[in-house]
Design a protein that fits this description.
This protein has 406 residues and is α/β, with parallel strands linked by helices. The protein contains 14 helices and 13 strands. The longest helix is centred in the middle third of the chain and has 20 residues.
């Protein structure tokens, strides 16, 4: 069996080797992490920059004889702080070059925002070309590499993290679909199933990511990559349509995850949905285990009684990391008990903790206010002073701390 490659890149070989060994201890058996020697790493990034310059001159940059280290990597892990005597390259620069001028899969940025942190804004740095930014101390978290954590009290595991192997396969499916005939000429929002009434509710800050067009519903995948400033940088040129598909598949996924989905008011996932409408939970509402079954990236929807309505479900599952529904359409469904009779809503004993991907008793949680253009910004993390919180690994930096409500 040919294993999928995880390249771990840093200018310090000892760090890269230590991180890759840890990843090999938790990643699925069909993946293998490899520490890249610094000289090979910088040679690979120089090759990508050569492709960038060649593309600006109108030359093809993906010829076989110019094969690059990063082309065969399913996942690239790169540290932010790089020391190279003749340049000021950072991990973010590498992420940009890999995304726009290689055939790599997912890109994981390390330590740009801390070595062990939780993002209380929940925005997740959409400007970064890494598909996910984490701290190096979190790289070997089993919850990042598989869904064995689902429904169990496993400690720190942010809900905004994807499951990387699942996310990689979804990324490649998006690329294949966008590589089909004239798919890049399709308008992004209609392609994703956003109707006019949903588009009208998108906040300005969310719409702006798609580009300067006053009518974001008119933006095509190709135009997003070339004109928005969140695909290719000014003056840069994609070497071919495959590159445009890969850039669009990555950057628009991050836009959906961190600017659209995070607010839980355009798209909503199963844990946040049942928190508002407990009657939709299939299991015993007095049992926290029933609530936690909804925190599944693969099967969370199977634990929720959603009325059958084809327009309610987000129908592009490869574009988000977990099952999703259109919130504005759900609130009009009188088949939902709390909508038909608002006074029937019962008090819920549990709240969903964004840092553990688990429901906890309300007294074991701490409230914070996310930095999102949404009416659902009041969220929860585990309270480390509580009995339940003492079981969760400490040492995580919750930033910015001003987001905690008092």
């Amino acid at each position: 069996m040919t294993k999928k490659t995880i390249l771990v890149c840093d200018d310090d070989m000892e760090d890269a080797k230590r991180w890759s060994d840890k990843v090999n201890g938790v990643c699925p058996p069909d993946f293998k992490a490899e520490a890249v020697a610094p000289e090979r790493f910088f040679e690979g990034t120089a090759g990508l920059d050569n492709r960038r310059q060649a593309a600006r001159k109108g030359k093809k940059a993906f010829r076989t004889e110019e094969a690059n280290l990063f082309d065969t990597a399913q996942i690239v892990v790169v540290d932010y702080d790089l020391l190279k005597p003749d340049s000021y390259i950072t991990g973010e620069d590498v992420a940009y070059l890999c995304r726009c001028y290689s055939r790599c899969g997912l890109i994981i940025g390390l330590n740009q925002f801390g070595t062990n942190y939780f993002d209380l804004t929940l925005r997740g740095h959409p400007e970064s070309y890494a598909d996910l930014n984490i701290g190096s101390e979190q790289l070997a978290n089993p919850g990042l590499w598989g869904e064995t954590w689902c429904g169990k009290e496993t400690g720190f595991r942010p809900w905004y993290w994807p499951v990387l192997p699942m996310a990689y396969h979804a990324f490649e499916r998006r690329v294949r679909n966008l590589s089909l005939s004239r798919a890049l000429e399709k308008q992004v929002l209609p392609y994703l199933g956003f109707k006019d009434e949903v588009i009208a509710t998108l906040p300005c800050s969310t719409r702006e990511f798609l580009g300067p067009n006053e009518a974001p519903e008119d933006t095509t995948f190709r135009a997003f990559v070339s004109e928005s400033g969140n695909g290719l940088r000014p003056k840069d040129v994609a070497p071919n349509s495959e590159s445009i598909a890969r850039i669009a598949a990555a950057r628009l996924w991050k836009w959906l995850e961190r600017l659209v989905f995070a607010g839980q008011d355009i798209l909503v996932d199963a844990p946040h949905l049942i928190s508002r409408y407990p009657s939709l939970l299939k299991g015993d509402r007095k049992n926290v285990a029933a609530w936690n079954k909804t925190a599944s990236f693969a099967n969370g929807n199977s634990e929720v009684n959603i009325p059958k309505n084809k327009d309610v479900r987000f129908s592009q599952p490869d574009w988000v990391s977990r099952p999703a529904w259109f919130w504005k359409k759900l609130v009009n469904l009188e088949q939902i008990r709390e909508i038909a009779d608002p006074f029937s809503k019962e008090e819920v004993d549990f709240v969903f903790c964004e840092d553990t991907s688990q429901f906890m008793p309300r007294e074991a949680a701490r409230e914070f206010v996310a930095d999102l253009p949404s009416s659902f910004v009041r969220r929860f993390v585990i309270d480390h002073a509580s009995k339940e919180g003492k079981k969760v690994s400490k040492g995580v930096d919750y930033n910015p701390a001003v987001r905690f409500s008092f």
